[in-house]
Structure formats: structure tokens, C-alpha cells
Amino acid sequence: MNRFRTHYCSELSEKDVNKYVTLSGWLHRTRDHGNLLFVDLRDHYGVTQCVIENKNKFFSTVEKAKPESVLQIKGKVIKRSTEAVNLDLKTGKIEVAIDTVEILSQAKELPIPVFGDQDYPEDLRLKFRFLDLRKEEMQKNIILRSKVISFIRTEMLKLGFLEYQTPILTSSSPEGARDFLVPSRLNPGKFYALPQAPQQFKQLIMVSGFDKYFQIAPCFRDEDARADRSPGEFYQLDLEMSFVEQEDVFQVVERLFVNLFKKFSKKKLLSEKFPRIPFKEAMLKYGTDKPDLRNPLIIHDITKIFTRNDVKFEIFKKLVQAGAKVRCIVTKKTIDKPRSFFDNIDKWAKDQGASGLAYFSIEKDKKLQGKGPIGKFFSEDSLNEIIKNCEADVGDSIFLSCGSEKEIEKILSSARNKIAEELKIIDESKFAFCWIVDYPMFELDEKNKKVVFSHNPFSMPQGNLKELNFDKPLEIKAFQYDIVCNGVELSSGAIRNHIPELMYKLFSIVGYNQNDVNAKFSGMINALSYGAPPHGGIAPGIDRIVMLLANKQNIREVTLFPMNQNAQDLMMRAPSKVNNDQLKELGLKLDLKKN
To answer: Cβ distance 28 to 40 under 8 Å?
Structure first.
């Protein structure tokens, strides 16, 4: 192969016995057996066991070498004894009898080990990421990421898409998250922004007459970190199509995702035709627009039950009279669960900031009756109505929450997941995709009592455009959609508004006049004025896709060099200070006074 190696550390087998080979790699670990020293040599491809006798002049060299030193080993391939065979290793039937050893690079004492499965604090892992990435699990994750991106590119080309690159230095956007700003040396006092997404550019590509675009696009947003979101930067599969309706986008994405997830995971798909769930239905049944459909628990509205005279649960009845709603979760055949199960759920809800979760079970002796703290407040007729409305049965239990719609959506969405985890009824062997559709175009900002865009301001409203009632904006639905898998939002998308007059009208509802729109979206609105095709698209997050396929809970496990929660790169020490000469050249002065 070359002077450093004749083989990789993964490829030697019994057919290579008696060959003289050269291997190079990292000293993974050593095992001292007195007169013999065993060395596991590791490279990117695998591990080979090597052995050296104490009479060999290089014995002390190997013995003193620290873990993760880079070695070149020459020797003969020999067959392992039967009792020494390791079938967990690709090279587990052979070993290399060391003839000579050269230390190509000596390692210092390790701040974190590479061998073993110990957990170490995140700040150490990120500061010494180059060591963390040497671990087998991390190597698998990053290789998976590379293969996923390559597969996506191939599939998109098969689907008739072409890849184009959009600018990294662009203008600041007044919508969305905070921009990362870049000062311009040649235009003093002015700034570029790193793109939060190629949204306007990909629409302009459609306006320019190209039919199908995609890009593995870097995006930059000055947002706080979460387990499923990196601070600073991330990558997405950005795609856009001309002359399409919502269903055309769905067909492309479903085909891609079915092929992708079948290729890279042994988990089954709950359905290859992704369910379409209207936003309003999702919020009612799941309390969230990111439902995990592997979870069979459903939320039911039982507000009307508390208007009955034969229901005596006065606390809820008074709240309902004041405008509150009551919703519940039914758990099947849980009447015999210990009291601690129910009390722990109630306590958990209080820990989340709610007032708790009321509960009772349905039992039948001679007649239907409620069992549990509030069971006595329900008559047989009211229990029959609950059974009918909630698809419940004798032996089932009911968890209830009362409050404003947003309050109970929040707590019951979390409770749905918590209860399912406690009951172990989430099918971890499946991927459950769905589309959330029919988002409202606008929503009411409760704090400011002002109508605002609910999702994407550049979306096309649904319905006959000539008959839209702009006087009732909260009733207007948009061709906006999210794709969700196992409770993780992978992307939002939309059919775009390609009609300038309609865009002016929609923006006027949230307080933008025509001059505002022209100033803030000049490139887009100008282009749409010269003949724009109906178009739409979506942009699934690469990081979240790989996180799901790798079965990881944190996005930092599937990215090479992530930042910490404070958006700091501990390894490269970024962000960093710059000197006064650099600032002067950019016409900048710092004012670091505390607010």
C-alpha cells in the first residue's frame, strides 16, 4: 500500500497467515502477560491484535508507549490458538507476531481515555473532541452521517433534482431567530448576515426558471442550545420545486425518507404512507404539533361532562363555568396498578408547574362506579358518557386536567409521554412519521393582543384567494406543513406565496405597510413581480435525521465539532477576542458596558 502500511487494521484474516505485514495505527490498549505483551492496534477501519516477546529488542519500547501513541508495527501474521479466538473482532482469528516497532508519534497522558465506555463531563469531551471522536461509537455516528448525506444526494438526483449552492454572506432578515452579523470592511458601518436558511434564495432559484433544487445547506442561527438543536450552525436538506401543490412535496419527501430509513436502520416504519394530521386535531389529541405516534395514548375533551348536574366535582365545574376546559388521558386496564403509580404521576405534574392531575378508575360491581380520589363525584350515567366519548372501558383509568387550552395542552402533552414511559407502551422498534397540516396563517399574540404570523409569512393561504375573508385573519389556514418522526420535528415547509399583491395584503394584517415589505424583502418582492411560478418546498434537518438513525438523544453525538450550551467551541476557543487593529480596519469600537 505504502511505506506506512500494507494492510488496514481490519482486513487481515486466516488467508493472510505467514504473510509479513506492516500496520500503522493508535495503541488502543496493552495487556502484559509477563514474557508476552499483547497490543491492540487501531486505525479508522478496525483493530488487530499484535504480540511481542520479552526477548525482542523492541519489547521495552512497546511496554513504555502510552495509550494513543501512533505506532508502526512490522511482523508475521499467525493463527490464534483456539482458546484465544475472538469472534467479536473481524481480525479475531489471527494476530501479528511483532518483529519491529517504530513510534511515529508519542502521546501525552490522556485527559480522557479512548478505550472503555466511561462517561466523562461534556466540557472535557468537547475540549478534547479529537480524542472523543476516536471512540468506536463516535466514529460509527460520524461515518453514518457521511453515508446518510451521500445517500440523500444520490436519491435527490434520481428524483430529478439538481444541487445548487446559495450565498453564505447575505442580508439580515427581520423575521425568525437572531442573525449572526459580519461587518463589511469595504462598506464601513454595514453588515452581512449569515443565512438562517437559504429561504429567499431557493425561491429566487425557482423564479429564475430552474425546476427542482436541493442543497445540503449550512444554516446559522443565534439561538440557545437544546438536545435536538445545535447553537450557532446546523445543516439541512434544503429543497424547492416549481409548479407543485402540497401533495407533490409530500410524495417526494415520503419516498426519500422511506428509502433512507430502510437503508440505515433495522427499525420498521409504522406506515410508509405518512398520516396527515390537521394542526387543530394534533393539538386536541396529542397536545402538541410534534406527536410521537408510537405512543397509543390519546387526549380527549370532556368539558361538557362537567356541565351535568350529576357530576359533583365542584372545583372543575366552577372552572368550566369560568371558561376553562377539561381534557383527559385514558390508560387501558390500569385499575389494578398500585396507588403509588397514580400518585407519582400527580406529583410529577406538580413538579412541572401544573396543579397536578386528578385521576380515577372505572370499575363495575353491580353498577359502574369510579374508584380513586375523585371517583365518587361521577354518577353511573356520567361514567357511561365518559366511556362513550373517550373509548374507555371498565378497568381503565382516567387522568384529568382543567385549565386554559394552552395550559392543558402543555401538561397533557408531557403527561402523555410520561405515562407511556411508565407503562412501557412506546414501541421503540419503530419509526412513526406524520405530516402536520392546515396550520393557521395567523395567531393572536396574547401578550401584546396583536395578530402575528403563526408559522411562515411567505406561505400561500388556503382556499379561493378571491373569497378570503381578511377581516377574520385567525380563520385563514395556510399551506404550511411540518414533518415529524417519533416526536421530533424534522422540518417545516410550505407552498409559497408567489403573488406580490397578496403578500402585501397578508403583511398588512400584522402591521407592515407596502413600503415596509419593499424595504425588508426587496429582492424577493421585486423578483415575484416579474413572473413567478407556483412553488413550494421543505428543509429537513440533517442533524436530527442522523440523531434518529443513530438512536441518540443529543445532537452533539452526531456532529463532528459541536459547541457547548453557551455556544462556545472549547477546543478552538471560539468565540475569541480580536485585536484593535482588526476592529479599526472594520470601523468598529466595542462597548462592553454591562446592561
So the answer is: yes
